[in-house]
Write a structure and sequence with these properties.
With 875 residues, the protein is α+β, with helices and mostly antiparallel strands. Helices cover 48% and strands 8% of the residues. The chain folds into 2 domains: 168-202 and 533-867, Collagenase (Catalytic Domain), CATH 3.40.390.10; 240-499, Neutral endopeptidase, domain 2.
Length: 875
């Protein structure tokens, strides 16, 4: 007969680990002892170290078990009680006692309190045949329910402060790390994604299923890049050497240390500035101006043409240049950078045109490195005979002050970000290329373009802000060559110093600026592996994405339902006439939705990935050069598209990125695989959770097609008036409403003052957030079929309706802690509003939210209809 009894545990084996030899001899002569005798005998034995360890482990396990059972019993009891009650009731207490024979006794008390206000299910819902489904008690369901419960702060009134109600628990449990100025659920998921990639980079067996030779090349490049970043001791050993190579190239090019045939009357004090700028821009180092290759939205959105715009700045936005305390910090940082790369250090490094092994590895990059390809003087002489300044510190101080003044003029001449980001008509100014070259004669654009597009000299350029060109020319004319050279040097040093060893003066100088602007604790540096994985993603994101997608992507989402719901709602919008509604429906239908990973480069094809990153070195010993080669690869690849048709399979984000975007000229929405994971999405979640979380992300991006900027692009991505005047006027009234609403919100600047949101800058994103109602309607429209399919099941211990949980799921993804300095920087530079206002400001414009939470008419988040900015009609 088969014995189905359980196998004995380790401590029940016939040869136990714990024995008393003396007791064994005595018992051999006596009768079989009773169970109580055995227990007393064991209890009186002296405890060996091993016994003590086992007892502690047993005690810990029992305590954990009792706590879990107590919590589970508590939430189950509360669930049963909540189903039958509609009013407040006293706290319920469940006591669970576990006794372990001859070991320990543990008592756990779990108390649940129905706090005020406590949203409950409506009686009519409880009686609905579509409401009742068995409560899911699987491990995944319990964990999801626990995650939601732990994120809440039920002391908050959801009708007054919904963001804190939905996220207060999460915020308490996730204090801001000292090395970060901001951290939220987006960053938390990004860290999880990075851990996946880190395993791929460190564990060579994790990708054993990929056996092609191309995969061998790709993985070697990825792992080499990662290893070069992790080798901190070698970075410190190299010191400033790699940065000095770049700086010395800039200096020698700027000073005309190459053979250039040009008429004598064309020579000026900025003789070599064109070559120096081309060298910098070809490696992604911004200065003076910027070029982008994007569609000609006024003629053919898929024809890629040249766009001229203002540059990035050393400080995040122009407002910072008007603050004395920030200017003082910035000037000191620039002074330290100038000292770190002073010409006194040139004797310590190899000269840039005597190629070191690191530079030889760059020979496959085009344009060649060093640049220009025709070479230059190799003697290292400066205009002053190669001698360093007599007082380098004083000179660095003077130059830093002048550079700050120079850059302040550039900032003041730049277009405000709210117009740059939100007004595509004002920033579309096509002109013949001759207009640019004549307005900015200090730059020899024929030489500049030959660096990037030797076979395609553009005959037309689109200028985002024409006055900037004339202002820049005037600024250059009134500035000495030494100051402009110093500006180029510090722009390069500021952008590249993070890739040096942390012991270098340049790294420490730029870090001071980062700490000041973001509020990071002084000297607090995060995990190096996390940083290095991020660098791999930024440089080789599509390559890493091939292996990330293989491990994580499920291939499902809900965006099609939301597009369908959006098109349906267009018929009932009060400010949109029938003609415009039909056109808007056609645009929504024409949107290309891309999910998971790109086909250009083709993530499923290793040969495509290998070719895409062929020019990136990935050498294990040259992190600095790896970063530069990746930047050069991206710049040249972009320029090679000039004059060609858009690649409809290309993406702007790599697969592991926790983000999504809408591209107006391409009329496409992209959802990388990185965001299709908890807390945003999981394929077996109940639908009301999925639609509230990822559904909002999808509806947000869809709504961008009809926001303050997106609405100006027709279904083919062309910039034109495709709505009627009546509809455009109606939309403008709604936009003005939301601008006024968000302009009234403010944050603490950490200095005793308030900084108000720029309602114009954030209007597009705020309108995008109004798309939450489309996700809600999409969920409602499929509810009955979803319920019948078992996808609207309940979760244990959650005393909230499905409608309430939809909105809670939406709010939870925006949980974020932020230092005041980082919050100020975000308000000045980011078109997204702070998380609190993205939540509370959005739901205050959705009547369905107030209905779900039974908000009284005088509640903060239930304003009267005339004060609501309702974009997409009422149910």
């Amino acid at each position: 007969m088969t014995d189905w009894s359980p196998r004995p545990s380790t401590d029940q084996e016939t040869a136990p680990l714990l024995r008393d030899p003396d007791a064994d001899e005595d018992n051999a002569e006596n009768e079989e002892p009773t169970m109580m005798d055995r227990i007393n005998s064991v209890a009186q034995e002296p405890l060996t170290p091993l016994t003590k360890v086992l007892l502690v482990i047993a005690l810990i396990l029992l305590l954990l078990s009792s706590v879990f059972i107590g919590l589970f019993a508590g939430v189950q009891h509360k669930l049963n009680v909540e189903r039958g009650r509609h009013n407040e009731e006293p706290p319920s207490t469940i006591s669970v006692t576990l006794t372990a024979t001859a070991t320990a006794t543990s008592t756990s008390i779990a108390t649940t309190t129905a706090s005020s206000p406590s949203p409950t299910r409506k009686p009519e819902e409880a009686n609905s045949p579509y409401y009742h489904l068995p409560v899911c008690l699987t491990g995944d369901c319990i964990m999801l329910a626990a995650s939601i419960l732990s994120s809440l702060d039920t002391k908050q009134d959801p009708c007054e402060n919904f963001y804190e109600f939905a996220n207060g628990g999460w915020l308490r449990a996730h204090p801001l790390p000292a090395d970060k100025g901001s951290f939220g659920n987006f960053e938390a998921l990004a860290q999880d994604n990075e851990h996946v990639i880190q395993r791929i980079l460190e564990d060579k067996t994790s990708t054993s299923s990929f056996i092609t030779s191309y995969d061998d090349q790709i993985l070697a490049k990825l792992r080499g890049f990662y290893t070069s970043c992790m080798n901190e001791s070698y970075l410190d050993e190299r010191g400033h050497e790699p940065l000095m190579v770049v700086v010395n190239n800039i200096r020698q090019m700027f000073r005309g240390k190459q053979v250039v045939i040009r008429e004598e009357n064309e020579r000026n004090k900025f003789e070599g500035m064109t070559n120096a700028l081309a060298y910098m821009h070809s490696r992604g180092l911004g200065a003076l101006f910027s070029f982008d290759i994007e569609g000609d939205v006024g003629v053919d959105p898929n024809l890629l043409v040249l766009w001229f715009s203002q540059p990035s700045l050393g400080l995040p936005s122009k407002e910072y240049y008007e603050e004395d305390d920030i200017r003082a910090v910035y000037q000191n940082v620039l002074e330290q950078l100038l000292l770190a790369v002073s010409e006194e250090d040139e004797q310590k490094v190899q000269r840039p045109f005597k190629a070191s092994p690191a530079l030889v590895q760059q020979s496959s990059i085009w344009p060649p490195w060093p640049w220009p390809p025709w070479g230059g003087d190799d003697d290292g002489d400066n205009d002053d005979g190669g001698k360093p300044p007599r007082n380098a510190t004083k000179r660095a101080h003077e130059l830093a002050k002048e550079v700050v003044n120079f850059e302040t003029q550039i900032a003041r001449a730049s277009l405000d970000l709210d117009i740059l980001y939100q007004d595509p008509i004002a920033t579309y100014n096509p002109v013949p290329i001759s207009n640019l070259t004549s307005a900015l004669p200090q730059i020899h654009f024929n030489e500049y373009f030959s660096t990037f597009a030797p076979r395609t000299y553009p005959d037309r350029v689109i200028i985002t802000y024409p006055p900037y060109i004339h202002s820049l020319s005037e600024i250059l004319n009134s500035t000495s060559a030494d100051v402009v050279e110093a500006y180029l040097v510090v722009r390069a040093a500021l952008q590249l110093s993070p890739y040096l060893g942390m012991g270098t003066e340049a790294w420490q100088a730029q870090r001071t600026l980062v700490e000041t602007l973001s509020g990071i604790s002084k000297g607090a540096v995060g995990d190096r592996a996390e940083y290095c994985v991020g660098q791999v993603e930024e440089a080789l994101g599509f390559a890493a994405g091939r292996y990330f997608v293989n491990e994580t992507f499920s291939g499902e989402s809900k965006e099609k339902d939301i597009v369908k719901s959006f098109r349906k709602s267009l018929k009932s919008i009060d400010w949109m006439d029938n003609q415009s509604a039909k056109a808007a429906s056609d645009k929504a239908q024409a949107i290309r939705v891309k999910v998971g990973y790109p086909l250009s480069p083709d993530t499923t094809n290793p040969a495509s990935i290998a070719f895409y990153y062929a020019k990136v070195s990935g050498n294990e010993n040259t992190f600095f050069e790896n970063v530069l080669s990746a930047s050069a690869n991206n710049e040249i690849r972009s320029w090679l598209q000039l004059g060609k048709q858009r690649d409809v399979n290309a993406w702007e984000m790599y697969p592991s990125m926790v983000n999504a975007y809408f591209n107006p000229p391409a009329n496409e929405i992209v959802f990388p695989a990185g965001i299709l994971q908890p807390p945003f999405f999981k394929k077996d979640w109940p639908a009301y959770i999925s639609y509230g979380a990822f559904g909002h992300v999808a509806s947000h991006e869809l709504t961008h097609a009809f926001d303050s900027a997106g609405r100006l692009y027709n279904p083919q991505g062309k910039l034109e008036q495709w709505w009627t005047n009546q509809t455009s006027d109606g939309f403008q009234a709604k936009q003005d409403c939301i601008i006024k609403q968000f302009s009234a919100y403010s944050i603490d600047d950490g200095k005793g003052g308030r900084v108000y949101i720029n309602g114009n800058l954030t209007s597009g994103e705020n309108i995008g957030d109004t798309g939450l109602i489309q996700a809600y309607r999409a969920w409602k429209s499929q509810y009955h079929s979803s319920h019948d399919a078992g996808n609207e099941y309940l979760l244990p211990g959650l005393p909230y309706t499905r409608e309430q949980l939809f909105f809670i799921s939406f709010a939870r993804v925006w949980a974020r802690s932020m230092k005041p300095a980082a919050a100020v920087q975000r308000i000045r530079t980011d078109p997204h509003s702070p998380s609190k206002f993205r939540v509370d400001g959005t739901v205050s414009n959705i009547p369905e939210f107030a209905e779900a939470f039974k908000c009284p008419s005088n509640a903060k988040l239930n304003p009267p209809p005339e004060k609501q900015c309702v974009f997409w009609g009422r149910s």
